[in-house]
Amino acid sequence: MAREFEVRREQDLPVTPEQVWDAVATGAGNLGWLYPMEIEPRVGGKATRGDATVVAWEPPHHFAVRATQDGGFSNTLSYRIEPADGGTSHLRMGIHWVHTGVVDDAWNWDAKTDVAEKYVDFHQHALAEYLRHFAGRPAVYVRSQRPDPTADPADFAALRRRLGLAEDAAVGDRFILLAPGPDHEPVEVVVDWLSADFVGLRGPDALYRFFNGSTWNVPLWLGHHVFATPIDEQQATKAWTAWLNDTPAQEI
User: Fold this and answer.
1) Helix axes 109-133, 17-24, angle to 10 degrees
2) What tens digit of pLDDT does each residue of 140-180 get?
3) Between the CA of residue 212 and those of 24, 118, 209, 237, 248, what are the distances in Å?
4) Cβ neighbours of residue 105 under 8 Å, at least 6 residues apart?
5) Residue 96, phi then psi, degrees to nearest 5
């Protein structure tokens, strides 16, 4: 039996349509708020989002990619960008899943759609943060995860405490984050997102993102967008991996 799932979101963004386009439809832009995704700039071009193909390319107004999998599943990600007053933009984005094959218990349809809804909201917020504070700056994406899944919410609570978040922390709070790395320099950050599933922190040169695995019984992980230059991506990943696993960096 075929199943469908759709997410639609709209938001106003304080930059031009061209700047929004650069953020969502280029590899360099995606590094600043989403994840690495290189895009061949034409209809029929390839995108490194699974085995994805560009199905709409109308800069700076309409971009879409579609990924397909064996078993009758397709996933289409689309952006429509409209000019608004004062050189700003209005963005409509959507995700459309179609599964024409058999959806059995192993596919975990309900869990996957729950993940999609929450991740869309978190990433669309990150897009706005990037465009407000870092638009056009080159970024390095630093990703790491723990080796094993977790179903224990106490693991993410412990991670929040290690970050320095107070039990009653709220969006807008500021505190000093001791970012890992060769210098261990303290960084003042502001909490820009806080929920049971995600922590988002914004520093002067980075968006720090932490993901709770226990909600979906997957590993805790982090995906940071770092705009400081110069930066050694390999060393930064090693340092954050050691931090995430609470291990000395030389053991990673």
Assistant:
1) 130
2) 999 999 999 999 999 999 999 999 999 999 999 999 998 88
3) 25, 12, 10, 18, 22
4) none
5) -130, 115
